[in-house]
Amino acid sequence: MNFLCSWSGGKDSCYAFYKAIQQGYKPTVLLNVMNEFGDRSRSHGIPKNVLEAQAAALELPIHFFSSTWADYEVKYIETLKALVKDYPITYSVFGDIDIESHRSWEEKVSTAANLEAVLPLWQGDRKQLVIDMIEAGLEAMIVSCNEVLGPGFLGRIIDEAIITEFEALGVDACGENGEFHTLVVNAPFFKNRIEVDIEEKAKSSNYNFANLVLKV
């Protein structure tokens, strides 16, 4: 029942990790894909040392590889195959909820490495999943967002009040359509809180990013 978790550092992968444990699976290793420069995660723009701090708080190893979007699938499969040799894993856990093309891709790359994909959040109600995450004690900070939300939302913690704001703006409560991404800074299963500062806010391709600095 050992699993690798596809770890973005955000709320969905973290909550999937937690739900998988509740279902009897055992966490073994985390996997994160970095940008081609190897300094930030490709999906969420989170610095490598912040992701390492999360792994330390979970007391688990985390593996990184760098990739462009063009090479993403090939490198992902290569990495999964290598990790299967290094760790006694038979399952891969992902945090997707209801986008069928994402699930198909995750099953494809997992099967290529003789792993079985597990999606603990699959077909959950998006809003209810966020409420459940909050009630479970996950503290998730918005670290990137689109222009509908704007830079003022960067650094804010996901709570029930902010869900109401999202809905008023026509933004999905879970951000499943890419409206925003988060960093989990604390959870009941972390041994310590992840302390970060926002050094500055930046914009790229009409998307806002918080440049995070790990406080030590």
From TrEMBL:
Transmembrane segments: none annotated. The keyword Lipid biosynthesis does not apply. It comes from the Bacteria. It is an enzyme of class 6 (ligase). GO terms for molecular function: diphthine-ammonia ligase activity. Keywords: Ligase. Its EC number is 6.3.1.14. InterPro entries: Diphthami_syn_dom, DPH6/MJ0570, Rossmann-like_a/b/a_fold. It holds the Pfam family Diphthami_syn_2. Residues 5-210 form the Diphthamide synthase domain. This is Diphthine--ammonia ligase. It comes from Thalassobellus suaedae.
